[in-house]
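Changelog-adjacent note: as of this version, every example in the card shows the full chain rather than a window. The one below runs 128 residues end to end.
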Amino acid sequence: MNVDDACESSGLKQHVQALAGARDDYNAAMQTKLPKFPGPLTARGAVLAVLLSNSDQTGAEPLQGRVTLAAIVKTLKRKYHWPIESASFPANVPDGRATWATVYSLPPDVIAAALDAGGRDWLLSRAR
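Full-length structure tokens:
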């Protein structure tokens, strides 16, 4: 019996297909939810403001000693439904070690739509 036959007889293939279908359903549902704006004076708001400015947001020291930029981006994606894109690449640190750097951004069409849907007012509320 080969691996394909073993997977077929054990029902593993159907289970994997069901999981893939559930993942596709979840991704489709996430894409239909409109992004929400976090509180303007929060760390999440600060990160979103940079992203809406169409500047790349790069990694930083943990905010207030506890929360990393990656955690904030994850929350903006999952809880607030922002389609934040990330790209990682190798980089060197001043002491000569190699590490990875990550750049976060929003697609230009998302930025335009967000600014038209109340984003400009939200950004102004950050300045008050």
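Structural remarks: Residues 1-32 form one domain.
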